[in-house]
Amino acid sequence: MRLLIVEDEPFIAADLESLALDLGYGVVGIADSHARALDMAKTLGPDAALVDIKLRDGFTGTDVAQALKELSVPFAFVSGNTETLPAGAFGAAAVIQKPFTDTQIGLVLQDLAQRGRARALCG
């Protein structure tokens, strides 16, 4: 699985990247803003994404999630602002509250990988 990380805190982004790599997943990139996330999602074609809600340019992670949904890219929210999510959370595979555990991220990555494989099989 090739993962896009949408996170504006460098230490958290590095932690998520390290966890993903340790678990054998690839990381196509890290985006810290709405515009960068959309560009990377369109040009790099990730299989899945982890998305923070509050990015460098404000509460735009939900806009990123909507775009990922339209691109059929499965995603999960990883945020300290989960209370701002609407019911249904844009079809997110999971909503993980920060601070997170390695186990939580591992489980959600496993789920995202399965969803990505299912998406690939369905075309």
The rough form would be described as globular
Structural class: alpha/beta
Which stretches are low in confidence, meaning pLDDT under 50 for 5 or more residues running?
none
The helix content, as a percent range, equals 40-55%
How many domains? The number is 1
Order of helices and strands: EHEHEHEEH
CATH class bucket? Alpha Beta
Radius of gyration (CA) equals 13 Å
- End-to-end Cα distance: 16 Å
Number of helices: 4
CATH fold type? Rossmann fold
CATH architecture tag: 3-Layer(aba) Sandwich
What's the main sheet like?
Answer: 5 strands, parallel
CATH superfamily: Response regulator
Average predicted confidence as pLDDT: 92
Question: In words, what does this structure look like?
Answer:
The protein is built from 4 helices and 5 strands. With 123 residues, it is α/β, with parallel strands linked by helices. It has one domain: Rossmann fold. The longest helix has 21 residues, at 102-122. It is globular, with a radius of gyration of 13 Å. The model has no long low-confidence stretch (mean pLDDT 92).
Task: Name the descriptors.
123 residues; alpha/beta; Rossmann fold; 5-stranded parallel β-sheet; 4 helices; globular
TL;DR?
The chain has helices spanning 10-22, 34-44, 61-70, 102-122, and strands at 2-6, 26-31, 48-51, 75-79, 95-97. By secondary structure, it is α/β, with parallel strands linked by helices. The two termini are 16 Å apart.
